[in-house]
Design brief:
Layout: E1 5-12, E2 16-23, E3 28-35, E4 47-48, H1 50-71, E5 74-82, E6 88-90, E7 100-101, H2 109-118, H3 121-128, H4 137-147, H5 149-154, E8 157-159, H6 161-170, E9 174-175, H7 177-180, E10 186-187, E11 192-193, H8 195-200, E12 210-211, E13 217-220, H9 223-229, E14 236-242, H10 243-251, E15 260-265, E16 269-275, E17 287-290, E18 296-302, H11 306-316, H12 322-331, E19 340-342, E20 360-362, H13 370-392, E21 400-404, H14 411-421, E22 424-428, H15 434-441, H16 443-446, H17 452-458, E23 463-465, H18 476-485, E24 502-504
The structure holds adenosine-5'-diphosphate.
Length: 506
């Protein structure tokens, strides 16, 4: 085909930036990526330099422009996606004040407590969909005010990572609801900043950019950057979506079809459930965000999923492949005398929101070997997802989960997850990511589809069902074990191995 029209999607991730060019059939015709460093200036702090994002993104865009030129393909619009929750602090001239703290930065415990004291938790959840969370952007701004007052005195604008890149590309400051709802101060029903919450915290609303729709054009590529990258001058730049929402768009997860969700077995485990109405968990044990399609979605995050297997392999048996570990685990029959694994190696997000929680193998005996430990680990991650799903279940209509992430390559692991969730799980034919979702969000502006709904319908991924492995009845006590053991594993009341068989990790 000559001169096929494409849209570009850019995902500004934590380890690097990825750009894809999709044709109207959703096929990737070109892609490029660049990495950048993660700064950890103090324990619990994670930062990146916005200048690194900018340099890497412009490089990746230059590479993809050259590929498209060679193919004779014409880019019609660029959609943005990226890591959520980070804070890019800018002065009145739009200059970056300091490196940006990221989504997984843990420095804001005191500021989270202050938010909770200022805005009652139930009120904050009803308005913004979430309780105050350490990683969100809002407590980062309070931290800047408390800890770096000279920097705060210069502060004129705060942007999310992908929106900062949009500002660099177009000169326009804007955001959209899916990412903005991860700030912690977006009124979910109105899909705009909550002046009440911001007033209570003594923060001016004008620190934050205008909120447009995720598929809206925010501006066009600056002429100097068009010349630098080789992309068309005035290329429309589309607001896009936060990385979870954009990945959901790419998988065809739509709030108009709330029966289809996703489960991701990546480093973290993520359950995504689209919703047509903003219905939060009253206790805020799972996140509620605006979806990039105009609706909403619940997000449950278990911090150690495939990351737990990676930890075991790297730290305990570095010479053994993932495949060997999974085969050994599969050879161990299910049974009530198997050990139980609590996967809280990095604390937990959903449903406990407890950074101090720690992991354990319990019920060990001389009969157990590595296969038992691995099987328990896989089951433990499956039960942690099921534990989170129990909180989401009354709020969602999901009947089928599309499975993604490295762990989903294993039929055995995915079978355990399907069994624990008690829902239909399907493996998609291909696994598009957030960059693909950003490119799809740009398709209406490019004129490739009349609206986002028709683009998502046309590009929907087909899934193949996975056979669930029965974890009950032999294991139903183990599912309950997570909930029952959680309070006993808090540092103040931890049960040490002298009183109960187990290995505790700090
Ligand atoms: P991330 O969330 O960091 O992008 P991935 O989705 O790429 O992570 O998943 C990587 C993880 O997948 C590894 O840490 C490992 O636990 C798991 N993994 C790797 N190979 C396999 C395999 N063949 N089967 C199941 N899981 C695997």
């Amino acid at each position: 085909m000559t001169h096929p029209p494409v849209t570009l999607g850019l995902d500004l991730g934590t380890s690097g930036v990825k750009v894809v060019a999709l044709n109207a059939q959703g096929q990737v015709v070109a892609h490029s990526s660049r990495t950048y460093p993660l700064l950890t200036p103090r324990p619990g702090w994670t930062e990146q330099r916005p200048q690194d994002w900018e340099n890497a993104s412009l490089d990746a865009l230059r590479e993809i422009a050259a590929q498209l030129q060679a193919l004779g393909a014409v880019p019609l619009a660029l959609g943005l996606s990226g890591q959520m929750h980070g804070a890019v602090f800018l002065d009145a001239q739009g200059e970056v004040i300091r490196p940006a703290p990221l989504w997984n930065d843990q420095r804001t415990a005191a500021q989270v407590k202050r938010i909770e004291r200022t805005v009652p938790r139930a009120d904050l959840i009803a308005r913004t969909g979430n309780r105050a969370v350490t990683g969100f952007q809002l407590p980062k701004i309070l931290w800047l005010r408390d800890e770096e007052p000279t920097a705060f005195a210069r502060l004129a604008h705060v942007l999310l990572p992908k929106d900062y890149l949009g500002y660099v590309l177009t000169g326009v400051m804007a955001t959209e609801p899916s990412d903005a709802s991860g700030v912690g101060a977006l009124h979910l029903d109105r899909r705009d900043w909550d002046a009440g919450v911001l007033d209570a915290l003594n923060l001016p609303v004008h620190l934050f950019p205008q909120v447009v729709k995720s598929w809206d054009v925010t501006g066009s590529l600056r002429a100097d950057l068009a010349a630098l990258t080789g992309l068309p001058t005035n290329l429309p730049v589309v607001a896009g979506g936060g990385d979870n929402a954009a990945a959901g768009i790419a998988l065809g997860l739509s709030s108009a079809r709330p029966d289809l969700g996703s489960v991701s077995l990546g480093t973290s485990g993520v359950l995504f459930a689209p919703l047509s109405q903003a219905t939060p968990d009253p206790q805020g044990r799972v996140h509620l965000f605006a979806h990039a399609d105009g609706g909403y979605h619940l997000l449950g995050v278990t911090l150690s999923c495939a990351g737990a297997l990676q930890w075991m392999r790297d730290k305990i048996c570095p010479e053994v492949s993932f495949e060997t570990l999974l085969t050994e685990a599969q050879q161990v029959p299910a049974g009530p005398r198997n050990p139980v694994f609590l996967p809280y190696l990095a604390g937990e997000r959903s449903p406990y929101m407890d950074p101090d929680l720690r992991g354990a193998w319990l019920e060990l005996s001389l009969a157990h070997g590595r296969g038992h430990l691995t099987r328990a680990l896989l089951e433990g991650t499956a039960f942690a997802l099921a534990d989170t799903y129990e909180v989401m279940r009354p709020l969602t209509q999901v009947t089928t989960f599309l499975a993604t992430g490295g762990g989903a390559r294993s039929d055995f692991w995915l079978g355990l997850v399907a069994g624990a969730l008690g829902s239909r799980v399907e493996r998609p034919a291909h696994e598009p990511g957030a960059a693909d979702g950003a490119a799809i969000l740009a398709m209406p502006a490019a004129g490739l589809y009349p609206d986002l709904t028709s683009a998502m319908q046309a590009l929907r991924t087909v899934g193949t069902p996975v056979s669930p492995l029965q974890t009950a009845p032999a294991y139903h006590n183990h599912t309950a074990a997570l909930t029952q053991l959680y309070p006993r594993l808090q540092p103040t009341s931890i049960v040490r191995p002298t009183t109960r068989a187990g290995v505790y990790m700090d």
